[in-house]
Specification:
Elements: E1 5-12, E2 15-22, H1 26-43, H2 51-56, E3 63-65, H3 68-83, E4 99-102, E5 105-108, H4 121-135, E6 141-145, E7 148-162, E8 169-188, E9 201-210, H5 213-226, H6 232-236, E10 240-243
């Protein structure tokens, strides 16, 4: 990238979040990091005061009011769960139908349900940070949360993927005015020649490019589970997928 780019980084969301912009506006940087912090406070299952932790403490049949961030993420998760026939499951198989978000209330339908929003909330947080930058007049920049990233304006980000065979990273593409996310998963090698000595399990990547990071982040899980880079939900959200 060329131009007068400024970067700041801060540990958030269990990773190092980098925010970049065209020029220098410390108030805009602060607003972007604050936006991510708000999402983390609402959705982290490790924070006892978060909506997710308070939901876990409820008995079945009870409900609680939740923040706008929780509503946004769970509404998207609910839509993807239903549209993917359960492939996208933020309960991680504890009870896919054990929760329901209606308006600003979250209902617990099963005692055993546990929510883990790590597969969608990071992308949403990136979008919130980008919105905060744009609201404060930034005309170009990016937010990178441990590989979930979004660029806007005339910013162009080189993308690299981890090379699980040779080590290090390898160039992949360039991201401009959109979002990109990658999920890592294990799969069995179909080629005996390619199979490693520990039983044929290889480390693989599912990557998705989409207009916003929430969809890019969440759709990587559907692609990784289904193995389908042409899954119908990709077209619905103007997304493109790769398996590596």
């Amino acid at each position: 990238m060329s131009g007068a780019w400024t970067r700041r980084a801060r540990p958030l969301l269990g990773t190092l979040v980098e925010v970049g912009m065209n020029g220098i506006d410390e108030n805009a940087f602060r607003a972007a990091f604050d936006a991510i912090g708000e999402v983390q406070t609402s959705l982290s299952r490790f924070d006892p005061a978060s909506d997710v932790a308070r939901f876990h403490a409820l008995p079945a049949g009870a409900s609680l009011p939740v923040s706008r961030h929780t509503v946004a993420v769970l509404s998207a998760a609910q839509t993807l769960r239903d549209a993917s026939a359960g492939l996208f499951d933020v309960s991680l198989h504890t009870s896919p139908d054990g929760w329901h978000c209606d308006g600003a209330r979250l209902y617990k339908l099963s005692d055993g349900v546990r929510l883990d929003l790590g597969g969608i909330a990071k992308g949403y947080a990136v979008d919130c940070a980008v919105d905060a930058l744009i609201e404060r007049g930034c005309d170009a920049g990016w937010v990178n949360a441990g590989g979930d990233l979004r660029a806007f304006g005339h910013a162009e980000l080189p993308l690299s993927l981890r090379d699980e065979t040779a080590g290090g990273v390898r160039p992949f593409a360039t991201l401009a005015d959109g979002a990109f996310a990658t999920s890592h998963f294990n799969r069995c090698s179909r080629s005996q020649a390619a199979a490693p000595p520990h039983g044929g399990v290889v480390r693989a990547h599912a990557s998705v490019a989409a207009p916003i990071c929430l969809w890019a982040d969440a759709l990587t899980k559907i692609v990784a589970i289904s193995g389908d880079t042409s899954h119908p939900l990709l077209a619905k959200y103007a997304a493109q997928a790769w398996l590596h």
